[in-house]
Amino acid sequence: MKIHSFISREQDYALRITAFLASLDKGEIINVNKLSKKLYLSKSFSARIIHKLKNANITGSVQGKYGGVFLKVNPEDISIWDILNIIGFKVRLNDCMDEHFICELEFGCRFHLFFVEQEKILMDKLKSQKISDYLFRKLK
User: How many domains does one find in the chain?
Assistant: First the structure.
């Protein structure tokens, strides 16, 4: 039986990239090739993620031979939740929680309430966890 991940590979890598960039010294940049090697990611996948983060104004870049990417935001101001959403996190714990789902049992179903409560706990935790809490130390 195959179990599907709650967090996609792309979302996971976006968290790693953001945390790695947050670990760099102020003013330091890193080229995508080096970043990809340090995080064991393909260059094309890294570039695609960095592009999404740049469109969301999370990362910036410097062009040219000595160019690279850097984190534009304070890592204390951005959460795991923020990064996941930028990369397309659209997951519910249960289909019955979707606003368009119609269930005849909703008001008498105790499972629905359980999943609503658990999702709120998880989302609050993801929002409270800042990228600054997950900096890379040894990869620099």
Answer: 1
This prediction has a pTM of 0.86
9-23 vs 43-55: helix crossing angle, rounded to 10: 80
Is 127 inside a domain boundary?
yes
- Of 107, 64, 57, the residue nearest 82 (C-alpha): 57
Rounded average pLDDT over 102-125 = 79
- Looking at the chain, which runs of residues are DSSP E strands? 59-62, 68-71
Structural domain harbouring 118 = 9-134
DSSP 68: E
Provide the pLDDT confidence category of residue 91 given band limits of 50, 70 and 90. confident
Give the separation between CA 139 and CA 25, rounded to whole angstroms: 13
What is the token pair recorded at 85? 């959403």
CATH number at residue 119: 1.10.10.10
Give me the DSSP letters along 16-49. Answer: HHHHHHHHSPTT--B-HHHHHHHHT--HHHHHHH
pLDDT of 97 > 90? The answer is no
CB 87 within 8 A of CB 14: yes
Contact 13, 40 (CB under 8 A): no
